[in-house]
């Protein structure tokens, strides 16, 4: 009798382990990661829907950025420019930005963090393509190479990212939230954040690495909370209501607060450094932080083999390199003129030559026409 009971218990444990192994299997024949068979697509339909939402969201964001840039250029060429917030075109870009961010937000409810976060490179790639087509910017060799690498990295990411499907319920988030791995991670993150904030505020250190590391530390909390909120909303629509649990509102507050402070430090970085430096470094830091958060909090690489992890990281490296090549030296092609023409400033009259002809006889003379200056002793010296 005891043997039968132990046998039944062993069968139940084996069934549970088999179910867990099916959820966290990588590289299984015919259905695992990296396979392009029909079984792989049938198994990853939900993930592919999240990928499609993320890619479309990032492309819409790139369109919105170029529309806002175009509206600023139009306003700058007007004789009497009006504020940008009175431009219908600018507001159209803002609406598209909100739609793109909504698509990214929804994507976290259908696919793992480690799959959605690296797809931010699609925004940079799409922006480069749109700026060449509609803003008539130059298409460089580095742009083509960067786009190729970004697309290749995205292909590897989609095929070798975690293929686990988790039902993000309130109880699941509560279980992950009090796990010892996440608690240790949060403590270390808070300590590092406080140290960097001390050097930034008290010591006045405004290096780009410090600023964007602060952004990345906040971004990890943003990604965790965004997936939790999006996943619980998705679970509420498809299965059971989850919005009555306190953990939902805790995650919602963390999401809003981390986004606000993240934007604050990112704006400081963009004010102090060129966009060509901020964009690739921020993409690398944000993606790395999001991957670590997904691995620790949601355990998305549990059971993955070494080859899968290596190819996934190689795909991330290709996307990082592609973003760097696309943004490299882009602002240097649009340097402003080295002189100021006061005649083009509304309300200003041009009283005298700003840059006289160096070959003329009057070069270097004073505005009143005098051709001499006084030395410290009061004597006149010819210029």
Automatic annotation (TrEMBL):
It comes from the Eukaryota. GO terms for cellular component: membrane. The keyword Ribonucleoprotein does not apply. Gene3D superfamilies: 1.10.3730.20. GO terms for molecular function: magnesium ion transmembrane transporter activity. The keyword Membrane applies. Keywords: Membrane, Transmembrane, Transmembrane helix. It is found in: Membrane. Its main location: membrane. The chain crosses the membrane at residues 46-67, 88-110, 116-135, 144-161, 173-199, 211-235, 247-266, 278-298, 304-326. Residues 353-383 are annotated as: Disordered. InterPro entries: EmrE-like, Mg_trans_NIPA. It is a multi-pass membrane protein. Belongs to the NIPA family. This is NIPA like domain containing 2. It comes from Rhinolophus ferrumequinum.
